[in-house]
Amino acid sequence: MGKLLALILIVSALAAGGAMYYLQVYGFYDEVALQPGRDVVLVPLDGGEGKPIAYSGFEAIDAGSSPIRYRACFNTKMTPDELAQVFTLSDKIEPRNAPEWFDCFDAAAIGAKLADGSAKSFLSVKNISYGVDRIVAVTDAGRGYVWHELNDCGQKAYDGTVVGEECPPRPEN
Which of 67, 70, 132, 162 has the fewest other C-beta atoms within 10 Å? Predict the structure, then answer.
């Protein structure tokens, strides 16, 4: 009887672990429909409304389970230096990992390009969700990447620190 119970526990643990892995890596993600003129926008130097840039080959994934699961890839003919003359640079140079099956987005390679200067990151949308900014990185080769990153208010709100007056009020759910 003890062996049967142990076997049931082991099989149940394996099934639960497999289900958690599947749901975390595959289950909640959906492809994002193309929205021309709204997929890739950058904030101008004056801080105004985001302006779209020319792009092609756009593909993106997102999950409703978290505001920081968005990832996208695209191509552009604009160079990072051209964009930096018009749009606001971001200090976010460590992209979040994407699921392995979304193979156009390699966070380690993108981060290395940002660190060595062969790519630049830009602010795309401030507070796309409370405390979350959209970041766009563009490489010298014209490859672009998009991800969501917690801003200062988001980090404070989610780690339990007092948010303070400099942050907008958190929306009621």
Answer: 162
Pick the closest to residue 52 from 68, 25, 74, 24 (CA basis). Answer: 74
Alpha helices in the chain (DSSP H): 2-22, 80-84, 107-116, 152-159
Task: Provide the token pair at 168.
Answer: 């907008």
Residue 169, Cβ neighbours under 10 Å: how many? 7
Tokens describing residue 10: 């082991």
Sequence-distant (≥ 6) Cβ neighbours of residue 171 within 8 angstroms: 130
Q: Which three-class secondary structure state does DSSP give residue 67?
A: coil
Half-sphere exposure of 81 (CA within 13 A, CB side): 4
Cβ atoms of 95 and 60 within 8 Å: the answer is: no
Sole residue written with tokens 């394996």: 14
Whether the CB-CB separation of 119 and 80 falls below 8 Å is answered with: yes
Alpha carbons 5 and 75: distance in angstroms, whole number: 55
Q: How far is CA 122 from the centre of its chain?
A: 13
Please state the pTM of the whole predicted model: 0.82
Q: Of 158, 159, 133, 157, whose CA–CA distance to 147 is shortest?
A: 133
User: What does the pLDDT look like over 51-83, one tens digit per residue?
Assistant: 999 999 999 999 888 888 899 999 999 999 999
End-to-end CA distance of the chain: 50
